[in-house]
Amino acid sequence: MSILDDARPGMDLDIRPQDDLFGHVNGTWLAQTEIPSDRSSWGPFVQLADQAEEDVRVIITELAQTAGASGDEDARKIADLFNSFMDTERVEAAGLAPAQPLIDAVAGLRDVRDVAAFLGEFERIGGYGLFGSYVDTDSKQSDRYLFHVVQGGLGLPDESYYRDDKFAEIRTAYVAYLARLLTLGGHPDPAAAAQRILDLDTELAKGHWERAETRDVQKTYNLMTADELKALCPAFDWDAYITNLGGHLSGEHATVAEVVVKQPSYLEHLSGVLESQPIEAWRDWFLSRVLRSAAPYLTEAFVETNFDFYGRTLSGTPELRARWKRAVSFVEGAMGEAVGKEYVARHFPPASKAMMDELVANLLAAYRQSISKLDWMTDETKERAYDKLATFRPKIGYPERFRDYSALVVVPDDLVANAQAAAGFETDRQLAKIGSPVDRDEWFMLPQTVNAYYNPGTNEICFPAGILQKPFFSPDALEAENYGGIGAVIGHEVGHGFDDQGAQYDGDGNLNDWWTADDKAAFEVKSKALIAQYDGFSPRNLPGEHVNGALTVGENIGDLGGLTIAHTAFQIAQGGAASLEDRTKLFLNWAYVWRTKRRLEQEQQYLTIDPHSPPEFRANIVRNLDEFHEVFGTAPGDGLWLEPEDRVRIW
Question: Cis before residue 614, ω within 30 degrees of 0?
Answer without folding.
Answer: no
